[in-house]
Amino acid sequence: xxxEMTGADIVVxxxxxxxxxxxxxxxxxxxxPIYDAxxxxxxxxxxxxxxxxxxxxxxxxxxxxxxxxGVVLVTSGPGATNAVTGITDALMxxxxxxxxxxxxxxxLIGTDAFQECDTVGIxxxxxxxxxxxxxxxxxxxxxxxxxxIARSGRPGPVxxxxxxxxxxxxxxxxxxxxxxHKTYKPQVKGDLAAIEAAVDMLAAAERPILYxxxxxxxxxxxxxxxxxxxxxxxxxxxxxxxxxxxxxPDDHPQxxxxxxxxxxxxxxxxxxxxxxxxxxxxxxxxxxxxxxxxFSPTSRKIHVDIDRSSFNKTVRVDLAIQGDVGSVMxxxxxxxxARGHRAAxxxxxxxxxxxxxxxxxxxxxxxxxxxxxxxxxxxxxxMTKAKKPIISTEVGQHQMWAAQHFGFHDPNKWLTSGGxxxxxxxxxxxxxxxxxxxxxxxxxxxxxxxxxxxxxxxxTATQYRLPVKVFIINxxxxxxxxxxxxxxxxxxxxxxxxxxxxxFVMLAQAYGWKGxxxxxxxxxxxxxxxxxxxxGPVMVDCRVAKLANCFPMIPSGAAHTDMILSAADExxxxxxxxxxxx
Amino acid sequence: xxxxxxxxxxxxxxxxNEAGVLARIVGxxxxxxxxxxxxxxxxxxxxxxxxxxxxxxxxxxxxxxxILAQLDRLVPVHRVIDLxxxxxxxxxxxxxxxxAGVGDKRVEALRLxxxxxARPVDTSTASFVFEVSGSTEKVNQFITLMREVGxxxxxxxxxxxxxxxxxxx
Lengths: 582, 169
Description:
A: Rossmann fold; Rossmann fold; six-stranded parallel beta sheet; B: alpha+beta; five-stranded antiparallel beta sheet; four-stranded antiparallel beta sheet; 5 helices; elongated
């Protein structure tokens, strides 16, 4: 059965059959045979990054924007270890990836050979699964299985470590049929009795809330539609985690905005005061819950998740439904309709929400010379929304301001590092998204500190003529670090000033990009317009108020009801227990 | 959850007998801060495809629930059975206990071993190695008594366990 070919050819053949169009990678000694096989074909496009971490983030950006599995190819040793941050990022945010790493030949494994590292050992706990393939004949089946594992169930990164001799040796290869893994069988359909119970609870609730997350995006675009139908049918308010932004349109009257540490007042208060919480594809992350013993104390809780280990991990729930959130919502809607339920009278609930909304917790007032970062992002949104842009971010204040002030209306348009919080994510992720959608407007909203963590990728965008835009919210500080130092460490700004910054315009030009500076409120619109008018990649250095803080904020270890809405609410230094939290 | 009383649970984990599978299990326990009181592993199928790992762990009920869920989602794990929650099951461990001494102590060691149905599997004129098996408590008790008659060193297998009755769980 099958044709005899080299391991390297098997890799390329299997990737082609799996529908892979783009591979992000960086060559090196232990993957040269695969690079040679790539050279001799034209079905798969290889994107040469400048650092392996960026290859993984680019694949993540590609995967999040397109819904496909992102593919990475790196060499052994430093190639693999540089990829570890990206692999961990993908695990935390449930992004489907297949990462191929070269390895020293099998007879040298364990000898501390040149560029050897224990890749499967190192990535065992930061990948969904990993393989060391020691026989060429197993390469084909492992590749197909890896894609199945990466994209099914709770998606995640799968690492395949391939020794160089395995790439060179020949074996027979034939495309396998459907993958039926003997132990790995993710549950897609939810238990019907539990779904019926959930629907009855929802129909009876007086103060329900739908708490939605990235699982809905991972489930596919249909799940977003189903969420909107479920919201319509039940009349319940909806809030979203950072990862789930876009599943509800930002301006939908039932949408309360993002919840959590920097979420809206109304979202957090509604979570605190609801009588029924329906968690759909989210995981009660500590950024969301705040102080656990004060988290939504009087509500009953339903949790829909494809990963059983998410249930009762931090918050006890009354009803857990394991399954794909799209499939479960579809069944919930069927049951809801079959039972003739109508949205319950939630007038009092909505009145309460209206009161919280009136606090206008994302509000700000732009006055004076210094441009407020919130204003910069608000204008960026208003001036680009007609183009339905894809937005990536780095990590920090700018990320939270983007989540608060950029309106998202569709899934797969918001690429941000949530779980791991990886600075340096945004530029490569934007590059990956741009490759998935060459005609789209892709903007990395960055900070001046984060952008420097993978700034070498400017060259990648130049090489492949990708018109990525980088919009740097430049406050000359690692802003979120500085904000925490202000709140918790007496304003002692230890090492959080971004000293010796490059001239971003000259830097952009050096890489063949266009560079634009926005000095203040008066050049904001013109600067954004100039960025949009330029057909190629643009880096915008947008100078903003240096000491602006990101509010509202639930300080670490505080309850939803202890939200700080503005600087006026700040209450001295936190106690040691709170200081010990992240 | 931390203030709930800790419970001891015996877990039986059937896994694919492949390279690295033990590292995955043990690594999961250490990465997430779970306890391992004892651990045994051996191939248990005719075709060497499946191994059974028996882990004795302890923690409050929500932690035990998390351990089961976390183990269950590892790709090479076939099944995770909480034998403590399942009900009737047999737990055994075996120890090799080396005792050195002459005269009365030597006679007493042999007499105690007989009561515990421990067999001498090695002997010299000044020492015995006893093989003792049974519940963890019994093995502990035997070792405690041997301290008084010249205990030198101990090797223990850790717990292996299986459900009672005719059925495979």
